[in-house]
Fold this protein.
Amino acid sequence: IKFNAEIHAPDNIAEAKRLLDQAKLQITQESYQLSYQSAKQALVQSEKATAIAENSERERQKAEAEAEQTAQAKDIIFKLDEQLNNKEIIERISQLANTDYQSVLTHYKKAKKAEKQENYPEVLTQGQRGLTRLKSAINTADSVEEKEKKLKDPGPDQVLSSVIGVRQKGGESLSRVNRG
């Protein structure tokens, strides 16, 4: 039976079965006209059951999709809350990637507002944008920290290139002095 019609429209299915059994009995009694009428009524009941079941299944699937979307929206808000409550991350990105940090906050506020309005597609959109900007901010902060570390503690390659650079500049200076 299509779309769980026995679950969603049990009365219609029971009536269709009763009418079909009645039609079979009427055939054995050679009441063909009555049998035809009973079979037609059984078909009508079966079509009603199918329509009820299809509608019920659509509603069930819609409710499941909405529940899934709501869960995803709450999850994305949770992830943003978790990251924005991490003092170490916030301190780093607010200082080293402030533009991205401000964008994260903007998307977070929009997501929270949409959540209050139960606009879960918008929560997902703004929340995902916020997480993307947060990831970008963290990457930017990591890059800035790495560059700062290289400036403070140059490796052997940087020292060598600095010495070569000084020698070249010094050589130019000496040659200018000797000419002049």
About this structure: Confidence is low (pLDDT under 50) at residues 165-180. The CA atoms of residues 81 and 108 lie 9 Å apart.
